[in-house]
Write a structure and sequence with these properties.
- Helices cover 47% and strands 15% of the residues.
- It has 330 residues and is α/β, with parallel strands linked by helices.
- It has a domain of 230 residues: 3-Layer(aba) Sandwich (Rossmann fold).
- Helix 5 packs parallel to helix 6, helix 7 crosses helix 9 and helix 9 crosses helix 13.
- It starts with a strand and ends with a helix.
- The structure holds NADP nicotinamide-adenine-dinucleotide phosphate.
- The site of NADP nicotinamide-adenine-dinucleotide phosphate has 30 residues, from helix 1, helix 5 and strand 7.
Amino acid sequence: MILVTGGTGLVGSHLLLYLTRKDIKVRAIYRTKNSLKKIRHLFKYYSAEPEKLWANIEWLPADITDIASLESVFDGISHVYHTAAKVSFKPGDKEILMQTNVIGTANLLHLAMDHSIQKFLHVSSIAALGTYDNPVTEQTHWNWKEKHSDYAVSKYLSEMEVWRAGQEGLPVVIVNPSVILGAHFWNDGIGKVIQKIRKGMLFFPPGGNGFVDVWDVVKIMTELMNRKINNASFIVSGYDTSYIEFLTALANVLEKQPPKYKLSRLMAEILYWIGRLTGKGITSRALLNTLFQHPHYSSQKLIDTLDYKFIPFEASIHNLTRHYLKDFKK
Ligand SMILES: NC(=O)c1ccc[n+]([C@@H]2O[C@H](COP(=O)([O-])OP(=O)(O)OC[C@H]3O[C@@H](n4cnc5c(N)ncnc54)[C@H](OP(=O)(O)O)[C@@H]3O)[C@@H](O)[C@H]2O)c1
């Protein structure tokens, strides 16, 4: 049986939908009934037969930072998709980031080895790579001399745990997605950006980034899991665009004005200090820096390995906003 961690999050829930639509039985872990309720709603939203899909999931309560709660979760498991993580750029979250992303991953790997799991797929991030190459590839290794957020450090250290387990004989594969575009998680990540565009955004950051559709991420994860590919990592980034191009595309579909003015360094500094005080917006210097950078991420290794074609940028944006408009018309 397959185990999915983080099934109540953006990536994990879409992975559960993807697997159960193929009639694959999975076990998933959850922490609160509230987050389960949210995912049940997501299944209803996406499927005409949500109960049929839901019945393919065996939900067990567990916290990845609490190894005792995970013991029974591994019974009869052959493959693990590890998507659970703390995603945060708040300065006060260092401890919880390390606990969840590093210790939590180490706990799962420990149990995976104990239970002779056939394969462990770890969801990392482009944040765990360096940015000094153009384009950034899987060979652009982490460089401590670059400025990193606590989140990035935790994702890098969790990868180190995965590679160590790989060296000890556990078949592992890592994906490094760029910014993931997915619907229904409107209070996090890209969902928040859409909310801001809808309310009217005046300023745009000068940099850019890689973006990828959540359906690409989960499809790629299953393809990597099902092939004889071990001890390898893959950047998963569908397209590369400047923030203004990205924000304009969103604004156009939402029939809103795109932001007009480029964010200056001085203004960003002021927003950063406000963010430090309020815990909202630009809360860390590492986050501030990303707004002014535009690293280019190459998915060539993945494209060559899987002969993969990503969902086009326009289609992703269109889908995302379509779901958004539907959700907010209710
Ligand atoms: N979103 C992006 O743009 C992006 C980009 C690159 C990489 N990634 C990576 O992709 C993965 C999934 O991200 P996401 O966007 O799906 O995150 P998300 O929506 O915030 O979901 C995080 C998931 O992890 C679970 N979780 C957190 N702490 C846990 C703990 N102590 N024990 C058990 N479960 C725990 C959460 O459960 P609760 O519901 O109980 O909180 C939730 O299911 C992460 O590894 C992230 O680093 C994300």
